[in-house]
Amino acid sequence: MAYYSLPNIKIAAVASAVPAEVVKLEDFADKFGADYVEKYKKQTGVKQFRKTREHQTASDLAFAAAENIINTKVIDRESIGALVFIAHSTDYWRPATACVLHKRLGLKKECAAFDISLACSAVPYGLYALGSMMETSDIDRALLLVGETPQKITNPNDKSSCMLIGEGGGAFLLEKTNDGNAGISGICRSFGQGYNAIIMPGGGFRNPNPPTEDYVWKDGNRRSMYNVMMRGEDVFAFTISDIPKTIKEYLAKIDKSVEEFDCLAFHQANKFILQMLCKKLKVGQEKMPMCLDRYGNTSAASIPMVLGDVYGNNDDAKVINVLMSGFGVGLSWGVCSAKISAKDILPIIESDEIFEEGIINTPEDYYNLSK
Q: Which ranges in 139-297 belong to alpha helices (H)?
């Protein structure tokens, strides 16, 4: 079942960050037609999204979220024993972006740092991987960082995706605890036969140099081999079938009902999918908050952003019982739950910060890097 239980690990803080630039769907009316845009807004629920600057990456946004936690919670950087970064939007092919973040955050040499290549399912998988690492080591405090900048690989003429995708980053601070009311548990799943349901075919080591020109694909949308493409019907069928089934299996495993949770913080795929999940789980929409109307589908960053949007300005110490689910690229999905104090959930912040040192366009840029 790939069920995990981490009774001695708690989520001590949650933060998220978005770029400052707001793109409204009305801006696409001249390109796609006002009627199509209005219909798209109603179907997906997206009214606007955030877009990064040139050279701004997912790690810049995750860094901003992590710094917000460290500064707001007054965390000793020397106490952080591990850093895991989960994204497909990495800074480079190599090294691991976690190592870049390790430098930027000023963490100690004894801190382990590594990447995991996942997108929408980042949070349930990341909590499993990092929490398990903490449970079996002397690490008492760690950072899980997530983020995506998919607008950079989405064709601006692909009307099926270019108005849906937003960009953001998130951070979770994990700590060991003896509090019997804390703990994290979950289930992780995958369906490799669906690896091509969401894919960017070109640019990797399998297809390193395909043609760069745009094609009109069978769905009528224009893309190149270096753009992400999605088989929407396959993804939709998987989502409304496998996700509620897995959630029900998880609830049976932990002997809880969905009504016992204060919040269902789910990946913000689109409004219709979230409504279908509510119907399948027999819960009201108020239990499953949405922030995609303002931020779009932010992939790995969806879950921390939902939490920040709902609870980020809440100063009381109420403990929130949260059910989380991430699902998508892979096909990969998971469900997990944790109790989080509302005062430990920080509001979404804006950041346009760029790690200027990491921009390497010439050999001179490389040799001028700080050591």
A: 232-254, 271-281, 292-295
**Residue 43, C-beta contacts closer than 8 angstroms, at least 6 positions apart:** 270, 271, 272
Please list, in sequence order, all residues whose beta carbon lies within 8 angstroms of the beta carbon of residue 98, skipping any fewer than 6 positions away: 83, 84, 85, 113, 114, 115, 145
What string of H, E and C letters represents the secondary structure of 109-129? CCCEEEEECCCCCHHHHHHHH
Question: Are 16 and 169 a contacting pair, CB within 8 Å?
Answer: yes
pLDDT in tens, 73-122: 999 999 999 999 999 999 999 999 999 999 999 999 999 999 999 999 99
- Determine the residue type at 256: K
Cβ-in-10-Å burial (0-12, 13-18, 19+) of 8 comes to middle
Rounded Cα distance between 28 and 19, Å, is: 20
Question: Side-chain half-sphere of 338: how many Cα atoms within 13 Å?
Answer: 36
Which pLDDT score, from 0 to 100, does residue 222 have? 87
For 234-272, b/e burial (b = at least 16 CB within 10 A) is ebbebbbebbbebbeebbeeeeeebeebbbbbbbbbbbe
Q: Tell me, rounded to whole angstroms, the distance of Cα 128 from its chain centroid.
A: 15
User: Would you state the pLDDT for residue 36?
Assistant: 94
Name residue, tokens 């950079």.
Answer: 152
Which sign does the torsion angle of CA 59, 62, 66, 68 carry?
A: positive
Is 370's pLDDT higher than 70?
no
List, for residues 46-78, the tens digit of each pLDDT value.
999 999 999 999 999 999 999 999 999 999 999
The answer to whether the CB of 324 falls within 8 A of the CB of 123 is: yes
**What is the rounded distance in angstroms from the CA atom of residue 293 to the CA atom of residue 306?**
11
b/e burial code for range 28-51 (CB count within 10 A of at least 16 → b): beeebeeeebeebbeebbbebbbb
How many residues are recorded in the chain? 371
295 φ, ψ (degrees, to nearest 5): -120, -10
- Phi first, then psi, for residue 219 (nearest 5°) are -85, 5
In the structure, how many helices (H) and strands (E) does the chain have? 10, 17
